[in-house]
Amino acid sequence: MIPPIDNIHTFDTTLEVETYNKLFTFAEDSFYSAGSDEQFLGVISNDPIFGTTDAQMYFQLLPSGALKSTPGKRYIDSVVLVLDYVEPYGDTAKAQNIEVAEIAPGTPFNPLSYDSTAGLLNRSSGYPVSVTFPTTTVLGTATVIPYKLKDSIDVIRPNDTTRVAKQLRIKLNDALGSRLLDMDSATIANDTLFKAAFNGLAVRSLSSDGNTILGFTLGGSTALSVYYRYDNATTAGDLDTTSANFVFSLAKSASANHITRDYAGTQVAATANDDIADPLVYIQNTPGTYANIKIPGLKGLKNSVIHLAQLQMEQVYDNQDTVFYAAPLFMDMYDSAAAKYKTIPLSIENSYLSAYDLSGSLLQISNSGYLAFGGLRVFYKRDPSANLVKEWQFNMTRYVQYLVKGTFTTGHFRLYTTPYMKIENGNPNSASTQVLVQTAIASSSSSVTSAPAKGRVRLGGGDHPTQKMKLRVVYSKL
Q: Which helix (H) or strand (E) holds 348?
């Protein structure tokens, strides 16, 4: 319980905060995508604060079974790329012009390796979001209005009409379908031979004024669907109709999700990577930005009973915030002795985080305490102009209590958002088990935002005139 402020035994004070905007370098933010992640596709060309984003998808789809009949006796009807749609991020009314091309044959493009020690596929053997791959033939194009992807459509085939929803369907060149139908049974049955003949697909947006990235999953209904006819083996001159699906295999198919930002001419670029304290803080999801936070007054706190130490920060309103919404935030601190960022001691409360392997199987679960720490818990309030904005409150009470006792030393903090963080097994409540936050998959990984690319927010910094970031401390003298 927080006692009432009586100004005799209990005091309420506010410590000033200094905030510094930074851009993650690749070395600091080298997120490696995996096929189990949500994949993003599209162009954001008009975020007035955070600039542009370009997201491209690369992936391999493999045969899910044998083809009917033999080469020369199969005849293409059509071939369609089907992408399983998850969500939009951005302005869903602006069109995206999508292009599908073939990844150049012979280009190294490999699936995740298996980590026998961890018993999992090794995320770090994948491809960083900065990577692109050379392409050859353009196989098809489509123009899509993002908000319409949620609508149901009828897929009409001879003797069959199916109603589907949340799919992006792109008709590809018949020549590709004919190539696939001309493959012999040995090539279709052997993943290595098949990849040598067809290395995969590259999907990107050509839009110059698009303002959305679209999320897809490579599982679900995602497939390369080849519709064809073949000679009836028992009736001369008769043709039967069927289809074959080429699908994504997490263990056998390679994938990469290219995501780049361009901050040229933005508010972010004007304030980042210098040593001047900033009144506004800009946080964008991977690959993105972060802020260093310094609280000089922590060093001057005397030993006392700390009832509450809460870092408070709030969103500075922009009319695009409903289109480009905020992602959950995370905060760690710099350990100068170890030259690493580590979890803030005593802030993440319980022994384990929820954890899933790359196939989605639950490894272990408990309440991580991250909600109480503040990153996932969002409050709403009115700013000085009566706009509804979000507020985050990071509970640092136990850390500050041990700080004033002399158990810990203080350093600067880092505020950011990340798709994955790794926390070692064991109780992170003691100083000896502070652990490095990494963009990696392990048996104790936890998802903060669940996906890269989406999510950004502008916050009031320590020098903001009306919406200051601050540390509120309620304490009693000993």
A: none
**DSSP label at 24?**
P
Global pTM value:
0.87
Alpha helices in 73-227 (DSSP H): 174-181, 185-189, 191-197
Q: Is the dihedral of CA 276, 277, 283, 289 positive or negative?
A: positive
Nearest to 311 by CA among 470, 429, 441, 136: 470
For the stretch 191-249, pLDDT in tens is 999 999 999 999 999 998 899 999 999 999 999 999 999 998 888 778 999 999 999 99
Give bridge partners of residue 299 from the DSSP assignment: none
Alpha-carbon gap, residue 283 to 24, rounded angstroms: 11
Instruction: Quote the CA–CA distance of 382 and 391 in Å, as a whole number.
Output: 10
Give residue limits of the domains in the chain.
10-26+263-477, 51-261
Cβ of 313: how many Cβ atoms within 10 Å?
A: 30
No. of helices (H) and no. of strands (E), the chain:
6, 34
CA distance 469 to 282: 13
- H-type alpha helices, 185-326: 185-189, 191-197, 267-271
